[in-house]
Amino acid sequence: KNIVILASGSGSNAQRLMEYFEHHTTIRVAALFSNNPNAYALKRAETFNVPALLFSRNEFVNSDKVLLQLQEYQPDLIVLAGFLWLVPQHIVKAFPNKIINIHPALLPYYGGKGMHGIHVHTAVVQAKEQESGISIHFVNEEYDKGDLVRQYRCPVLPHDTPEELAARVLQLEHEYLPKVVEELLLSNGTENSQR
Ligand code: GRF
């Protein structure tokens, strides 16, 4: 089975996926796509000998170029791991129930446009939430709105800075994202295809 990763930034989650599946018998990371020429994720892909592809907004949104490139890798699952652009409709439609995103908070709260990276954790700390966590969800045409696959929780400590909370949440992501991806790919698909 093939995983294709989309990443815009550091790519530490992408790295975890590439490590976890490097010697897997039936699942591999087939490619990593990025919209950002400076994304460290691209370098990480090179290290793992995973093909790394860069695309522009125009190619992504206004043409079939990225869609066709994605199809070449025959993805069974497309994982948005720190990918910051909205996925255009023609791509969402082409891969029904095959695109997931990881979000560093407990959706439906603290999601949506502009809610990414440290902004999420700043909002959670300011609201004095006692809990945060991660959400892994299917992707539809709206930011952070598709059906949930899994959530995992961690405490927000009274004196946490957004950075401290971010680190705790990122650890959860690193621990669980590969496992959830594996589970989705190894489940016989009936439950997913009915969604
Ligand atoms: C993660 O917190 C992810 O939830 C969010 O962006 C961050 C990406 O981190 N969508 P990295 O690029 O995987 O290090």
From TrEMBL:
The UniProt record gives the binding positions of N(1)-(5-phospho-beta-D-ribosyl)glycinamide as G11, S12, N13
Q: Which GO terms describe its biological process?
A: 'de novo' IMP biosynthetic process
- The first-level EC class reads transferase
The record's GO molecular-function terms, alphabetically, read: phosphoribosylglycinamide formyltransferase activity
Q: Which residues bind (6R)-10-formyltetrahydrofolate?
A: R57, N101
Q: Please list the residue ranges annotated as the Formyl transferase N-terminal domain.
A: 1-181
Active site location:
H103 (proton donor)
Give the protein's biological function: Catalyzes the transfer of a formyl group from 10-formyltetrahydrofolate to 5-phospho-ribosyl-glycinamide (GAR), producing 5-phospho-ribosyl-N-formylglycinamide (FGAR) and tetrahydrofolate.
Q: Name one GO cellular component term.
A: cytosol
Q: Which NCBIfam families match?
A: PurN (TIGR00639)
UniProt xrefs under Pfam families: Formyl_trans_N
Report keywords, A-Z: Purine biosynthesis, Transferase
- Catalytic function, reaction form: N(1)-(5-phospho-beta-D-ribosyl)glycinamide + (6R)-10-formyltetrahydrofolate = N(2)-formyl-N(1)-(5-phospho-beta-D-ribosyl)glycinamide + (6S)-5,6,7,8-tetrahydrofolate + H(+)
Name under which the protein is recorded: Phosphoribosylglycinamide formyltransferase
Q: In which pathway does it act?
A: Purine metabolism; IMP biosynthesis via de novo pathway; N(2)-formyl-N(1)-(5-phospho-D-ribosyl)glycinamide from N(1)-(5-phospho-D-ribosyl)glycinamide (10-formyl THF route): step 1/1
Q: Which domain of life is it from?
A: Bacteria
Q: What is its EC number?
A: 2.1.2.2
